[in-house]
Fold this sequence. Notes:
With 320 residues, this protein is of the alpha/beta class. It is built from 15 helices and 7 strands.
Amino acid sequence: MTSEIWTEKYRPSLFSEVVGQDEIIKRVQGLVNTLNIPHLLFAGPAGTGKSTLALIVVKELFKDTWKDNYLELNASDERGINIVREKVKTFARTKALGSVPFKIIFLDEADALTTEAQQALRRTMENYSSTCRFILSCNYSTKVIDPIQSRCAIFRFKLLEKKDVEKVMNIIAEKEKLTITPEAVEEIYEASEGDCRRCINLIQATSSVSPSISKALVSTMVSEAKPKDIKVVLDYALSGDFETAKEKLLDIMLKESISGQDVIKAMQKEIWNLQVEPDIKVKLTEKTGEIEFRIVEGSDPFIQLQALLASFVLAGLGKQ
């Protein structure tokens, strides 16, 4: 059950579907009530309600005719200048149906648009402002050029807190007749890291196995390194046993199918639970950041992780 399906299936009130963004909802709802919105830019992490809120705005404005007055494009798939010149302009220059005098174009992942496409979009936003409004959604507003940002009302979304994710989980559990233990709720939230979309997908995956969702069941579905396994690896490294630490790490990566980046994230969290001096924790955290960058840039994950383990060994020997 994706977040979109959940949105359609359990609709108590449109704006109430976006949780954890109360201030944004209040401001956007005020704009919608005037039936005259500016261009909007929604920026923030994935799974925090940006696309859902854009759809709510459209449905609140146009009611039953929303499909005729709405165009959605994913800029990461269609990111060139021709998309702006053809699809966007063609839709923008036609008149809206109904009492609202403008249509809405929703550009998802707008930060993936090329610079040339963004420059063309800037002119389109100016030329067709009387017949069209744009809602842009992005993860990083800094990748959207300043002229576009200055033409939009910017709303910055934040990662969801546990109480917000738990609220969504309780609604789904009630409607789908699931039982989710408090430990499972905690595990799902930790795995989702404030991403409501991932939280819903995890519930769907686990509920397909059993309607009683436990922490153990969630753990089997979550593809990430377990803290206790990473702690064993780091303990061996800090004790100076590089060979055993390396073997344990390889075992985790192969048996659990864990990526190098996931291992790095788990190590970074576990560093602060180690029995070492605070200044060593800081140095090791800096080292994990450097290794993560190398892996992202294309270096061999296991070689880089071995280099990181070597840093832990040196830290344990007091040479770091």
